[in-house]
Design brief:
This protein is α+β, with helices and mostly antiparallel strands and 371 residues long. The chain has 2 domains: 8-65 and 203-370, Beta-lactamase (3-Layer(aba) Sandwich), CATH 3.40.710.10; 78-188, Beta-lactamase (3-Layer(aba) Sandwich), CATH 3.40.710. It contains 13 helices and 12 strands. The protein has a 7-stranded antiparallel β-sheet, sandwiched between helices. Strands 3-7-4 form a 3-stranded antiparallel β-sheet. Strand 10 (314-320) and strand 11 (326-332) form a beta hairpin. It starts with 7 loop residues before the first helix and ends with a helix. The mean pLDDT is 93.
């Protein structure tokens, strides 16, 4: 760079253009676990005057999955689980009618979407569980019982085969956490991740107060209509939490991303926290690129390549959406760098705008490109 400060607000405003009157966007750039740039643009609600701020909370959708997997790794480190544990072993005293095909399925297979699970629960099951008004751990256990009593969608494969993206798998992972600890996934998130990382804006489901624009509103990808927190159309049922219902300000999300960025084995400034180095190696699946592991998609790209012999440009990334919000993170451990962008628009125009913003921030701030 020529030494002129890069204005992230201006970058985001330029990318949103006229869409800045319909929804908003927030972004953070990380080097290690430090924010080096951040900015916002747009509005909290279509047709309203309230503008997005850096303190606003955004729905993270499936970017929650890496958080659920991190909780699993914590229990493994404590000896309460292990990576080779099977569903048959975990639920031995709870599910007597488990279909035999599930008995040998392991947690890494579930977290890598290779367990043969469907994308989500059947509608009839979902409706029955929600209408029961039982607490969320009971709802998740009922989803798990029903799912595991029936045969898989496809044969469970090895860690990186038979890939079939499954929100249901992460609901099941949440049920495992709750079964082992006796505590709700939401409480584990608050106590084991939010509190130690200093995340003060973390919550679940759409943020804000019903009927007010004190936080951003999500917007339907079909109609563009703003969806109040209290609207039944604003989100999936709360039992989906472990698969994708967390929300927080982007600066707080950056604290979680920074944890994984600095914990990755390929980071030259590696500094593991909350978990030991081996746990991050397992979560980030240091095998071949083009895989999925524990809430991260893994590939290689030129801008992410470090300067050491053997560096390959390994990138870990993920996107998240419930159809009303959209966000994405790209993490490049070899250069100790990450970009996070979130918006309160549904994944039609929002996907395009988020990708544009991510690419612009990488061009502006990635060490190799910005030199």
């Amino acid at each position: 760079m020529d030494g002129t400060p890069v204005d992230v607000d201006s970058i985001l405003h330029s990318i949103l253009g006229l869409w800045a009157k319909r929804f908003g966007m927030a972004a953070v750039v990380l080097r290690g676990n430090c924010i080096v740039a951040q900015g916002v643009a747009g509005v909290r609600k279509r047709g309203a005057a309230e503008r997005i701020t850096l303190d606003d909370r955004f729905h993270l959708g499936s970017c929650t999955k890496a958080m659920t997997a991190t909780l699993i790794a914590m229990l493994v480190e404590e000896g309460r689980l292990n990576w080779t544990a099977t569903l048959g072993e975990i639920f031995a005293d709870t599910m007597k009618d488990m279909h035999p095909a599930w008995e040998k399925v392991t947690l890494p297979q579930i977290l890598a979407h290779c367990a043969g699970l469907r994308r989500g629960p059947e509608r009839a099951l979902q409706s029955r569980v929600v209408s029961s008004q039982e607490n969320l751990p009971h709802q998740r256990l009922e989803i798990a019982r029903h799912t595991l009593s029936r045969p898989p969608k496809s044969p469970p494969g090895t860690k990186f085969s038979w890939f079939s993206y499954s929100n249901l798998g992460y609901v099941l992972a949440g049920a495992v956490l709750e079964h082992i600890t006796g505590r709700a996934w939401e409480d584990l998130m608050r106590d084991r991740l939010f509190l130690p990382l200093g995340i003060t804006t973390g919550g679940f489901g759409p943020p804000g107060t019903t009927g007010k624009t004190d936080q951003p509103w999500g917007h339907s990808w079909i109609t563009g209509k703003a969806l109040d927190q209290g609207s039944p159309a604003a989100d999936f049922p709360l039992f989906y939490g472990p698969a994708g219902l967390s929300h927080m300000a982007v600066a707080d999300w950056a604290k979680f991303v920074g944890l994984h960025l600095r914990g990755d084995p390929a980071n030259p400034h590696r500094q593991a926290a909350l978990l030991k180095p081996d746990a991050f190696a397992e979560l980030h699946a240091t095998a071949t690129a083009g895989t999925y592991s524990a809430g991260w998609k893994i590939n290689t790209t030129g801008w992410a390549k470090g300067t050491r012999p053997g560096d390959i440009g390994r990138r870990l990334w993920h996107a998240g959406s419930n159809g009303r919000w959209y966000c994405a993170v790209s993490m490049a451990p070899e250069i100790d760098f990450a970009v996070l962008v979130a918006c309160n628009g549904g994944p039609d125009i929002a996907v395009w705008k988020i990708r544009q913003a991510g690419k612009a921030l990488i061009r502006a701030f990635a060490p190799k490109l910005a030199a």
